[in-house]
Fold this protein.
Amino acid sequence: MQITLITVGKISAVYLKQGIEVFRERIKHYVRLDVIEIADIKNSNNLPSDDLKKRESELICKHLTSDALIILLDEKGKQMSSVTFAHFLEQQPAMNGNHHLIFIIGGALGVHSSLHKRVKFSMSLSNMTFTHQMARLLFLEQLYRAFTIIRGIPYHNN
């Protein structure tokens, strides 16, 4: 299985960069993980929000492939427990032939409606709202947790 995480913007906080790197290192023992960072749009403060979301979404779409299951992390998406997320990941290749999963974390304003049309599944990390930078760390921790659940490693229950 291959997992690609597409995100908008660079991580600015050192503590988030460190945490993200910890989980990227851990995850690589279980699955191939590629992280694609879409650069922030220049002069974005001068753009209407829908135009900004459209431009960011167009850049995201350049990295989507037709052979992948495309999953959007979105506050309105389906919520799953860590165990349910692990089962979801475990079932993808067997049930749907999806050996490539692409997860998307949009920019601070979310993604454009045109991107929503390409997404096969939306999931939420929580009822709470997080910055898109924090969402990256939280998602990677949950991805690592899912693989430890799948492999029966005691990280989840500690």
